[in-house]
Amino acid sequence: MTPTYEIYAIRYAWRDARRHEHFIGGDPHDAPMPMDYFVWTAIGGGRSFVIDTGFTEEVAKRRKRNWLRCPAESLKLIGLDPETVKDVILTHLHYDHVGSFHKFPKAEFHLQEPEMHYACGRFMRFPKLAHSFEPDDIAGMVKLNFKGRVRFYNGQAEIAPGVSLHLMRGHSAGLQCVKVNTARGPVVLASDVTHFYENMEAGRPFSTAFHVGEMLEGFETLAALAPSPRHIVPGHDPEVMRRYPAAAGLEGIAVRLDLEPSA
Ligand SMILES: [Zn+2]
After folding, report:
1. Residues 34-61: tens digit of each pLDDT
2. pTM higher than 0.85 for the full model?
3. At 137, which CATH number?
4. Confidence (pLDDT) at 263
5. What is the Å distance from ligand 1's center to 97 Cα?
6. From CA 120, how far away is CA 77, in angstroms rounded?
7. How far is CA 144 from CA 101, 133, 147, 149, in A?
8. Distance 95 CA to ligand 1 centre (A)
9. What is the mean pLDDT of the chain?
10. Number of domains observed in the structure of the chain
11. Residue 248 and residue 261: Cα distance in Å, rounded?
12. How close is the Cα of 132 to the center of ligand 1, in Å?
């Protein structure tokens, strides 16, 4: 039988933003729309997976993000030690998803190959696209690959019973989302396939995009992968903290995505 996993979202940073910043073409209503930053974990079947590693305090300062806690250290709150974590899934290589990779000395990193090609390729000469990456993160991943610590995929892959990766592109050239089996059915961790519920629900792509068409297709693929919209978890929406029950003793810090949301 396929194991079921507990899924945690840990909120490690946030930023103030306005609605027009989150949609291609802007937004007629210039209201506040803050953004949260998360790392996720899936624990079950005798294994644990960390999904994305978040950014460091130094990068938070430089990019003027409100850093709440070290994403790697925060894993200890749910019983995982970054020093011994074996598997890290990187949904993509943007700074807010890979920045603390060096705090996982034993991990193998699971990444889509097109993302590495993109981050090392010709488009990085354009600040519009390069802005989302930290060159030191990319160099770090290249070096880890030479040490045999990066496992590449091209498309869909089941990396453990009940944990599968899905290449979704759009926002970044090799973005992937993660589908995890839970007691309430498969939950799709969308990461930046949809930053907010609203991107997906309104079919309005997020402002940072590599391929708008594939981003729009991504919203449809999310819906196809999940048994219901309540099984899709956006990558940056503060609503996630409101809709899901807090992890035991971690009110305002971490929520359980394997449990039923309120909406
Ligand atoms: Zn992101």
Report:
1. 999 999 999 999 999 999 999 999 999 9
2. yes
3. 3.60.15.10
4. 86
5. 6
6. 35
7. 10, 17, 5, 5
8. 8
9. 97
10. 1
11. 16
12. 9
